[in-house]
């Protein structure tokens, strides 16, 4: 019958949709990257200052005065890297969305792209993840200098994909937060979210060593940042107690999928609302 769509035509239509989605994603991401090049110092100042002082005080000063053991620096650096990467991606994604939706209205232009809405949401998530990776890459040499520590090339190569995955997890959480919270309340909710994430993310301590404080260990287990910190310790300080790497990777991937799906749904609701 002439009204029926053949299988080759269906495949061709699906291919065109994928091409439009890719072009929309690339256009939205490229615009953000172009703006970021001019704002790199501000971006780094937002995400690196706090981790730098945590490294200085907790990893250098406390060791110098004998308050913690000398090997504590090796435990701390993976946690600080996880914190910088995750929160850098979360902060830039969430606050960027709020700013675009309520102040500049730039997203209204991007929503006119001949591409599905989810491509714009994915572009914002990818941009936030890139900022998180940038922050993490910058904090590592700072940590080496402050802590007088060094990782082998093999350890650095093993940590890099974990940094990328952690940045994607933070960006997905930022997409969810940035679309779920009203613009006027974002500062309050951001402060409420960041503080618990920071102190229950196993940044300053290995998670298995909390076995004598079971209630706090279970609380930390609910935080995806814990699994990023522990996964980075697994590849940089394998002799230290840590959550097995396969478990950490599984939880991080699951968190990206769930938070990303919720964030895309929230983005669609805000865009069409």
UniProtKB/TrEMBL annotation:
Family annotation (InterPro entries): ABC2_TM, ABC2_TM_bact-type, Nod_factor_ABC_transporter
Pfam families per record: ABC2_membrane (PF01061)
UniProt entry keywords in alphabetical sequence: Cell membrane, Membrane, Transmembrane, Transmembrane helix, Transport
Membrane association type: Multi-pass membrane protein
Record carries keyword Nuclease: no
Highest taxon, organism lineage: Bacteria
Regions crossing the membrane: 43-63, 75-99, 134-151, 157-179, 186-207, 243-264
Compartments where located: Cell membrane; Membrane
Domain (ABC transmembrane type-2): residue spans on this chain: 42-270
Family: Belongs to the ABC-2 integral membrane protein family.
Name by which UniProt lists this protein: Transport permease protein
